[in-house]
Amino acid sequence: MFYENLIPYYAPYDEESFLRQVDTFNQQQQQQQQQQTSFYYSNKIKEYASSSLLNSSILNNPATSAS
Q1: Half-sphere exposure of 46 (CA within 13 A, CB side)
Q2: CA dihedral sign, ordered 1, 17, 19, 28
Q3: Smallest Cα–Cα separation from 49: which of 38, 37, 61, 57?
Q4: Alpha helix (H) residue ranges in the chain
Q5: How many CB atoms lie within 10 A of CB 22?
Q6: 1 or 62, which is more confident
Q7: Please, what is the end-to-end C-alpha distance for the chain in angstroms?
Q8: What is the dihedral of CA 6, 12, 16, 22, to 10 degrees?
Q9: pLDDT tens figures, 40-67
Q10: pTM of the shown model
C-alpha cells in the first residue's frame, strides 16, 4: 500500500491536456506577435505617407510670404 504512493502516477490524458495548453499558449503568443508587427508596420507606412505628403505639398506650394 505504502509503495504505491511512491510510484508516480502516469496519465496520458494529463500529458495530452498539458501539451494542448502549451500549444494554445504558443499560438496566442504568435498571434500577438503578428498583431504587434503588423501594427508597427502600418504605423510606419502611415508616417511615411504623411511625411511624403507634407514634403510634396511644401515643395509644390512654397510659402508665399517669402516672395
Answers
A1: 6
A2: negative
A3: 57
A4: 2-6, 12-60
A5: 10
A6: 62
A7: 101
A8: 20
A9: 888 888 888 888 777 777 777 766 655 4
A10: 0.44
What 8-state DSSP symbol labels residue 8?
A: P
C-alpha–C-alpha distance, residues 41 and 36, integer Å:
9
What does the block give as the cell for 42? 502600418
Instruction: Tell me how far apart the alpha carbons of residues 9 and 1 are, in angstroms, rounded to a whole number.
Output: 14
Dig out the grid coordinates for 38 from the structure: 503588423
Phi, psi of 54 (to 5 degrees): -60, -45
Rounded to 5 degrees, φ, ψ at 39 are: -65, -45
